[in-house]
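Thread amino acids onto this structure.
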């Protein structure tokens, strides 16, 4: 047997395959070709020493903004991928019907890094910072559905940001419209919550099984827990009927107190995503491994946080078994994570801090068997420094 690449001696964490321990990975033609306790030295094109590192599936970030160059929030997916360990970026509504073709071009250019997309109900997507659902003329359900159907390789669902700024005077009407499009497309809706109105009770009851509620630990008025830490009405019922809780940390959407209350209530996030964008990558979010470190600090296990950034989001975008796992036959997306020990502060978007003695950091990242090289990160957009 010969391999193009062998990753040797690391501690494998592959929750989808229920495999954990010291394994060698053999990679051939961009796929995982062998997972063995020890692979022989013969026939190996190139060997990578992963001794002392965690070997996990390439991270799948369910909520990010990678429509670089044409939107307020977008960052360069390929440039950030090796810094974050992310091999699949799911763009959360940066593109709408009028702008989706540009994101398809970006996705083609980012390969082997993968881009998928929730398509915004608003035809202009996130060209600007907000207000995208406040103008009735941009709420074109037919155009959104046509755009989704035009991009089967890219589109995984519909996105609607529902908060006091995004919808203006439209209230929950854009959410109902987005749900109609998702229903017709046979796809999930990703709902963003934040500062109301509308308030949580008006939106959460509309979500269907399989729909994703992102910013589940937001400190905004639509937050999932009350000031006493108890779940707000409708939250447990929503999760029980199959609504998916996603983190989407971002620049304003992660509170330790809310995250802790959800964990105490027995509701860990299904998926841990970054909401990486122009501003959050320079604030308390930084990158997806830092988000995972926060949930480790809150008491989730290593297998749980890795699953929440690999197998779980891969399943949510219909890539179960192909992405988010290191099983034989899967795409060879691999991330080598360092477990740094020390005493590190972790900060949420309110300035609240927790300390941790273990921090995860992406060291080397491979997409379809090709190593993604660390380059300098692009400079921020001017407004990212002002905001
Ligand atoms: Zn976002």
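Threaded sequence (387 positions):
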């Amino acid at each position: 047997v010969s391999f193009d690449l062998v990753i040797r001696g690391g501690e494998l964490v592959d929750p989808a395959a229920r495999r954990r321990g010291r394994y060698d990975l053999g990679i051939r033609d961009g796929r995982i070709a062998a997972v063995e306790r020890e692979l022989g030295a013969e026939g190996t094109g190139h060997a990578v020493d992963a001794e002392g590192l965690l070997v996990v599936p390439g991270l799948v970030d369910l909520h990010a903004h990678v429509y670089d160059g044409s939107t307020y929030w977008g960052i360069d997916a390929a440039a950030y991928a090796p810094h974050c360990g992310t091999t699949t970026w799911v763009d959360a509504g940066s593109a709408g019907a009028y702008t989706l073709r540009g994101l398809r071009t970006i996705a083609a250019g980012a390969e082997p890094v993968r881009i998928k997309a929730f398509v915004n109900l608003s035809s202009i997507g996130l060209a600007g910072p907000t207000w995208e659902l406040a103008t009735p003329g941009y709420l074109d359900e037919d155009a959104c559905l046509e755009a989704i159907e035009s991009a089967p390789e890219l589109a995984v669902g519909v996105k609607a940001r529902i908060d006091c700024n995004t919808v203006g005077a439209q209230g929950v009407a854009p959410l109902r419209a987005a749900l109609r499009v998702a229903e017709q497309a046979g796809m999930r809706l990703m709902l963003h919550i934040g500062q109301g109105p509308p308030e949580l009770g008006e939106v959460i009851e509309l979500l269907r099984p399989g729909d994703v509620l992102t910013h589940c630990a937001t400190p905004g008025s639509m937050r999932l827990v009350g000031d006493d830490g108890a779940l707000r009405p409708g939250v447990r019922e929503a999760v029980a009927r199959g609504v998916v809780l996603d983190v989407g940390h971002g620049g304003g959407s992660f509170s330790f107190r809310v995250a802790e209350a959800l964990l105490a209530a027995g509701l860990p996030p299904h998926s841990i995503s970054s909401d990486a964008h122009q501003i959050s990558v320079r604030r308390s979010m930084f990158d997806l491994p830092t988000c995972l470190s926060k949930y480790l600090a809150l008491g989730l296990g290593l297998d749980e946080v890795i699953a929440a950034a690999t197998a779980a989001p891969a399943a949510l975008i219909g890539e179960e078994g192909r992405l988010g796992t290191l099983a034989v036959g899967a795409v060879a997306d691999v991330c080598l994570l360092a477990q740094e020990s020390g005493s590190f502060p972790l900060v949420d978007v309110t300035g609240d801090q927790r300390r941790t003695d273990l921090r995860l950091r992406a060291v080397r990242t491979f997409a379809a068997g090709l190593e993604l090289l660390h380059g300098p990160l692009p400079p921020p957009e001017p407004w990212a420094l002002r905001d």
